[in-house]
């Protein structure tokens, strides 16, 4: 059964002087040329993207000091990792960060984008202001917010809250408030990109639908609910997935602002990986945890895409 | 036809092969006669006078050793970046690290055996054995000391005066420190006692304070293996003291999540009354950051009855990746830059004169890396150039002769400190923190770390 389709082209190719043969030959030449042009890109991508991933998987089963040849240790790195009592807390903290950033970080850029698109005047200024935080280097914005969250009365956030008779709050110094504070910073510095994507998607929404809705007497809220959101469904789903993946890899905010504290309240999985590798010099365990995180992200992404496929195409 | 079809492929392969060859060759010396070593310890560009002195020393060294090129690195040791630099092939030949690092660097074989080169040095036999104990394993020498320190109390003399305290009689016990801290906070509105708790500094301080109460962090069992030993009264007393100062007295200020650099900045700005650190190590940075020497006070480490203090050092080691020629050059440089000014009175006087002329601190009282006699000879030689208000260090200097020096944990010190940071942070950020439960949790965690390290 399977030999039939392969035999046909072979016969056609061996026909001397046949049109099919010339076409196949030209196609082959074209394929080789394309491959030759693609080769540098394939090499660079393979060397800088796939090779490190492959090495990481291997390193997860080795111990190395980066000087001598690595030693094969089997599942020992994973055993060591699972014996670490900090791991469950780091996983829970990471999930807590992801949950908070979805609650705060998902609706906010969508709302800003919809409101901005409704503006009759000043739309360009609003878009610029919304995107501005993305331009600031992450470490700079995080350090800036660290001073804003100063726990004393002189801290900017506390000073503002003081105007309405609230605070002062310990923010980063409190095990309960530290994580929500980090989410606020991450949302502030990252939502500009999502806003731009939503705004771009909004330009694709047919104005006829709005006109029809207006003729039917629909309010602004009903227009958004029944026209805008269904039209943005695909974009929302993609950004949601990117946000989940990004949130599960959170690192800069806890590393720079709290170093995982207070009392491990903001230790995340990536911070643990970093500590294992660069504080304890245990690259094997660090890569074992990296591999587990990567597998978890693939599973989450696949499950998410499967669960939302029906909704995104309906 | 076949050949022409493969020509682009062959060309691309050739380009990549040439690129790979060039990349592989780029880290070799242009001349086989010359050896280049990268050395840590170059002062930052902002510290112009210290940098000028360093560059002058490099020029002198290169003139005396024409086959050696020295490239200075002003990147300081950071446990979090060193491994990445090593992985990237960027580790310097001469590594400058705190005394907590040698055990793990030796264990991981990341530093070279320099026994042959070091034992030829004239000053080698006189090095302080207390420091060398950490740098020698199984009679193999892995490093040489640059400077040594002991914990003490650093304080702001001006804030003391404003708070009605006598800056010439700083507190000597933890109870006195607590009273003084409360007084400073109440009378000046500044932080009475500064504390740090991130980047392993919480565990580092908990260790140092525990020593003053007669405790230890780890102890060696009958089988020669180390286990945690801090779940007892000396450490509990430290945590209770912190709790009282933080939650009863409100003398610790607002920021509980800082590291040494953060607190130094606050101290230099005059916002902190007292804190614990290595006074001689801190002083040059304090002055370089614009601190007023007259306000700087260095006192004995406050005590809880043990008359003991944590002692450490900055040491120089050679990368295991260094070639034999680089290793020899590295040890020569270490002798030239770090050992001679502490050993040879003439050299000490020469650099002291140059440093004083450039406004650099001269005469900061330190814990000697050679014998006390050698230290006295050097001190006499530089006495004409001393510009540090040495009398402000009187209480600290006095303690150096009275206290027992206790070394940092011999195994996994940084990992232990990292495991203790959250414990310290919990006590400082949660007024309902259960000290006994926290100590039990930390003990389990440290024992896990020790078990893994001693497998």
Quick take:
The complex is a heterodimer of chains A (314) and B (455). By secondary structure, chain A is mainly alpha-helical. Helix content of chain A is 75%, strand content 1%.
Strand order in space, largest sheet of chain A: 1-2
CATH topology of the largest domain in chain B: D-Maltodextrin-Binding Protein, domain 2
Oligomer: heterodimer
The CATH architecture classification of the largest domain in chain B is 3-Layer(aba) Sandwich
The mean pLDDT of chain B is 89
Please trace the helix and strand order of chain A, writing H or E for each element: HHEEHHHHHHHHHHHHH
Q: What is the average per-residue confidence, as pLDDT of chain A, rounded to a whole number?
A: 86
What is the tally of helical segments of chain B?
Answer: 18
The count of helical stretches of chain A stands at 15
Which of globular, elongated, flat, extended, rod-shaped describes the shape of chain A? flat
Pfam family, one (chain B): SBP_bac_1
Keywords (chain B): Signal
Protein name (chain B): ABC transporter substrate-binding protein
InterPro entries (chain B): Bact_solute-bd_prot1 (IPR050490), SBP (IPR006059)
């Amino acid at each position: 059964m399977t030999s039939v389709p392969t035999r046909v082209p072979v016969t056609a190719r061996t026909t001397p002087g046949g049109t099919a043969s010339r076409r196949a030959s030209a196609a082959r030449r074209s394929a080789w040329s394309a491959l030759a042009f693609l080769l540098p890109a394939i090499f660079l991508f393979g060397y800088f993207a796939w090779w490190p991933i492959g090495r990481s998987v291997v390193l997860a089963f080795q111990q190395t000091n980066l000087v001598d040849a690595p030693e094969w240790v089997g599942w020992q790195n994973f055993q060591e990792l699972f014996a670490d009592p900090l791991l469950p807390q780091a996983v829970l903290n990471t999930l807590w960060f992801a949950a908070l950033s979805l609650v705060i970080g998902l609706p906010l850029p969508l709302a800003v984008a919809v409101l901005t698109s409704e503006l009759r005047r000043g739309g360009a200024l609003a878009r610029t202001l919304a995107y501005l935080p993305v331009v600031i280097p992450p470490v700079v914005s995080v350090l800036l917010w660290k001073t804003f969250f100063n726990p004393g009365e002189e801290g900017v956030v506390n000073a503002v809250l003081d105007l309405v008779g609230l605070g002062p709050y310990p923010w980063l110094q409190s095990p309960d408030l530290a994580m929500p504070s980090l989410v606020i910073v991450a949302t502030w510095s990252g939502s500009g990109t999502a806003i731009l994507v939503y705004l771009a998607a909004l330009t694709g929404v047919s104005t006829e639908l709005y006109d029809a809705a207006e003729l039917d007497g629909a309010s602004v809220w009903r227009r958004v609910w029944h026209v805008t959101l269904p039209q943005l469904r695909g974009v929302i789903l993609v950004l949601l997935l990117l946000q989940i993946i990004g949130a599960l890899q959170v690192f800069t905010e806890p590393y720079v602002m709290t170093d995982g504290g207070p009392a491990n309240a903001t230790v995340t999985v990536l911070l643990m990986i970093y500590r294992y590798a660069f504080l304890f010099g245990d690259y094997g365990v660090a890569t074992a945890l990296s591999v587990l995180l990567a597998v978890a992200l693939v599973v989450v992404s696949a499950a998410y895409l499967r669960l939302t496929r029906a909704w995104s195409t309906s | 036809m076949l050949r022409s079809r493969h020509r682009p492929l062959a060309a691309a392969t050739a380009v990549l092969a040439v690129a790979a060859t060039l990349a592989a060759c780029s880290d070799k010396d242009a001349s086989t006669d010359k050896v280049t070593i990268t050395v840590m310890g170059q002062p930052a560009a902002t510290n112009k006078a210290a940098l000028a002195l360093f560059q002058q020393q490099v020029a002198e060294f290169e003139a005396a050793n024409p086959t050696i090129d020295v490239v200075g690195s002003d990147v300081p040791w950071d446990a979090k970046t060193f491994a990445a630099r090593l992985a990237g092939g960027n580790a310097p030949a001469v590594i400058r690290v705190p005394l907590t690092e040698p055990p793990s660097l030796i264990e991981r074989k990341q530093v070279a055996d320099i026994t042959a080169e070091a034992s030829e040095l004239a000053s080698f036999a006189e090095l302080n054995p207390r420091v060398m104990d950490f740098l020698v394993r199984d009679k193999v020498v892995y490093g040489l000391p640059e400077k040594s320190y002991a914990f003490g109390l650093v304080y702001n003399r001006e804030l003391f005066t404003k708070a009605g305290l006598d800056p010439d009689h700083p507190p000597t016990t933890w109870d006195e420190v607590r009273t003084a801290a409360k007084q400073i906070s109440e009378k000046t509105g500044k932080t009475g006692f500064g504390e740090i708790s991130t980047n392993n500094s919480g565990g580092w301080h908990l260790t140092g304070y525990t020593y003053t109460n007669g405790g230890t962090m780890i102890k060696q069992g009958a089988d020669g293996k180390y286990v945690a030993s801090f779940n007892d009264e000396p450490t509990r007393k430290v945590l209770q003291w912190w709790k009282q100062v933080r939650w009863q007295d409100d003398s610790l200020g607002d920021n509980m999540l800082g590291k040494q650099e953060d607190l130094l900045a606050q101290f230099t700005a005059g916002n902190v009354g007292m804190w614990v650190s290595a006074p001689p190590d801190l002083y040059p940075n304090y002055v370089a950051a614009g601190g007023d020497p007259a306000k700087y006070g260095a006192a004995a480490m406050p005590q809880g009855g043990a008359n003991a203090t944590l002692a450490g050092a900055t040491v120089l080691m050679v990368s295991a990746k260094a070639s034999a020629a680089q290793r020899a050059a590295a040890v020569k440089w270490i002798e030239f830059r770090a050992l001679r000014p502490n050993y040879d009175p003439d050299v000490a006087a020469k650099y002291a004169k140059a440093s004083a002329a450039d406004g650099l601190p001269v005469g900061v009282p330190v814990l000697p890396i050679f014998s006390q006699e050698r230290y006295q000879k050097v001190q006499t030689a530089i006495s004409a150039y001393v510009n540090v208000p040495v009398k402000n260090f009187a209480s600290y200097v006095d303690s150096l002769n009275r206290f027992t020096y206790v070394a940092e944990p011999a195994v996994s010190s940084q990992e232990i400190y990292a495991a203790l940071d959250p414990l310290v942070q919990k006590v400082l950020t949660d007024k309902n923190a259960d000290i006994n439960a926290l100590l039990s949790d930390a003990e389990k965690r440290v024992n896990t770390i020790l078990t893994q390290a001693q497998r």
